[in-house]
Amino acid sequence: MGRSKIEHKLIEDKAYRRATFSKHRANLLKKAHEMSVLCDTDIGVIIFSSTGELFDYCSQPQCMEQIIERYQLAKGTQTHQHSELQGMCEKLRKENHSLELTLNHLSGSELNSMKYEDLEGLEKKLQCSVNKVRARKEQLLKLEMDYIASNVEKMEVENNQLCYWIKEQQASSSQQVTVEANVVPEEKHYRQVLNQFPFQGEEQPISLLQLVNLPPYHPSLVEQMQSDLQEASFYPQ
Question: Cβ(76)–Cβ(60) under 8 Å?
Fold first, then answer.
């Protein structure tokens, strides 16, 4: 009798299901590796478990992205836009490599692979860059010198104004001293004039105008009044 056909269905027991998955996954990846080595074939295996865990295998020296790309090209599922993006990425990769190489040459490294003509061109580029840097440096230096010169001019103007103000203050101070010196002799003369007029029992006038407004002075009457007062003091009643 022949072997009976085994019916395959979902394993209800979760623990037994996980064990069966691990066993068949290992066998599948092992068979894929054996087939890749024995038959020199490109094989890519992608496995997702029921929990979303990823397991994959790719034959060497290929990578999974290359296997998927070959699969899309063979099946015709790769779009034109995807091809353009891949071409653009490759172009950018080459440009990046070229820029890195140029930067290394400008920094003075990796010069052994350059020819004499390339070295001459590199020297001209470096000389041109040096001239541009030197011109920019001179421009900044000139701007700085102009700024300093303008500040010096402003400070000179402020200094001249300050000197003029100091001279005016000194001139006004000297004029005030001169006026005070002239007032002192006039006040002395005024005192001499007032001393010529004796005032008894009255307040001393403070100005010549008050002196003019006083009644006329009679020396004989004053002397007579003084003698009468003296006699009255000798003969009390």
Answer: no
User: How long is the chain?
Assistant: 237
What pTM, to 2 d.p., does this model score?
0.34
Residue 205 near residue 211, CB atoms below 8 Å:
yes
Give CA–CA dist 145/142, Å, rounded: 5
Please, are residues 114 and 105 in contact by the beta-carbon 8 Å criterion?
Answer: yes
Q: How far is it, in rounded angstroms, from Cα 17 to Cα 12?
A: 7
Rounded to an integer, what distance in angstroms lies between the CA atom of residue 158 and that of residue 108? 54
d(Cα 41, Cα 33) in Å, to the nearest integer?
A: 10
Q: Which residue has the tokens 């040459």?
A: 105
Question: Helix or strand or coil: residue 189?
Answer: helix
pLDDT in tens, 27-72: 999 999 999 999 988 999 999 998 889 999 998 888 888 888 888 8
